[in-house]
Amino acid sequence: MDNTLKNLKEAVALSPDNAILRKMLAKELMAEEYWSEAEVELKTILRLTAQDQEAKLWLAQSYWALDKKSVAAVIAEELEDQGCDAPAFTFLLAQLALENKDLPKAKEYYEIAVNANLALKNTTFEAQLKETILESGAALGNATESTEADEQFFADIEKPAITFDHVGGLASVKKEIALKIIHPLKNPQIYEAYGKKIGGGVLLYGPPGCGKTLLARATAGEINASFINVGISDILDMWVGSSEKNLHEIFQKARASKPCVLFFDEVDALGASRSTMQNSSSRFIVNQFLDELDGIRYSNDGLLILAATNSPWYLDSAFRRPGRFDRIVFVQPPDAPAREAIFNLYLEAIPKEAGINITKLVKQTKDYSGADLKAVIDIAIESKLEASLMENKVVPITQKDLLNAIKRHQPSTKEWLSTAKNHVLYANQSGLYDDVMKYLNLKK
């Protein structure tokens, strides 16, 4: 037996009418989950001090843990009549409401409790609430008409159908993501043997339009995980403290949906370097973000965090510490095999002349992003629309149309690569941008 418990029991035996000692013993018994013994002590305390509201709450919690939920509900009604407003009591009301399938009340009480005391955040309760909602098909707001706020409670959670097979090229990037995220989930026993947690963070950076978001969705698809795509507008709020709350709620939503890939696009807008900030509220957002990534107060096991940025040099260096974004991966413009795959994909479903020379198109589109290649196809299509309308029939796209489109659309990655070159040359002491240096054929 724990020495603290043993000493408290001995003290109570010497002074059986000492309610304070008995409360100390009851609290310790509850902490150790000796619920039946706690029940006995709490009943004795209430015989000694009938109006002890805290002891009544503890007794109700003990009854709940012992699955005597109807008795817990009776005590809860009494406490409610007495005006008890302790956050732990409000959480108990949330549990009772969920038990009775009163989902709006369960959500309301739970949010009040957590806002008053963050330590009451309970991912198990959130998962049960979500499961009950899905089973009943009920909305969290009005019983007959859902509200936008209620729909957002577990909204934006996807189950992507795409996998890495749908992403052309980028073999090295896929390997990095697989090592950090996919293999741990598929082979947990191996990683546990080395003391490695399942989960973590990967930061994807590179020029816009190169498939970072597609990669994130494909990662979720590879492991059949939930996927939450977080935009800046989902977080930032004009009211002080609201942005941090929004960020925390998104992480909690992901924790309740494990395994889950949580994807932050344009993460530099949320995690910019604090040394350059003049607004203290922005620093609070960064601090909250770092706290959520650390997973100290709430477990991130099974939570996979991907983030993308076009400007990694503006991101606060604290995000690159171990346990946060452990891997920083350069998503370069599609290489030749990837461009060939992308051209084949886009040209497959449109009318075209026979014998299109994809190899020649690939040679003409070095540094083109995936979005640039799509734009080339769109320009070629537009060049044929007028002729198709005039002739009142579909006119196929030719090799010449595609080559002309390439001439008209220059790669959008050039500006990014030029900016990146400056950072590679003058701010790469840690070797963070070695992959960019290699892509640009620069020497150390």
Automatic annotation (TrEMBL):
> Which Gene3D superfamilies would you find in this protein's record?
1.10.8.60, P-loop containing nucleotide triphosphate hydrolases, Tetratricopeptide repeat domain
Q: What is its EC number?
A: 3.4.24.-
Q: What Pfam families does UniProt report for this protein, alphabetically?
A: AAA
What are the alphabetically sorted keywords of the record? ATP-binding, Cell cycle, Cell division, Coiled coil, Hydrolase, Nucleotide-binding
AAA+ ATPase domain location is 198-335
Q: Is Protease given among the entry's keywords?
A: no
Please tell me which top-level EC class this enzyme sits in: hydrolase
Molecular function in Gene Ontology: ATP binding; ATP hydrolysis activity
PANTHER family attached to this UniProt entry: AAA-FAMILY ATPASE, NUCLEAR VALOSIN-CONTAINING PROTEIN-LIKE
Name the UniProt record assigns to this protein: Cell division protein FtsH (EC)
Organism field: uncultured Aureispira sp
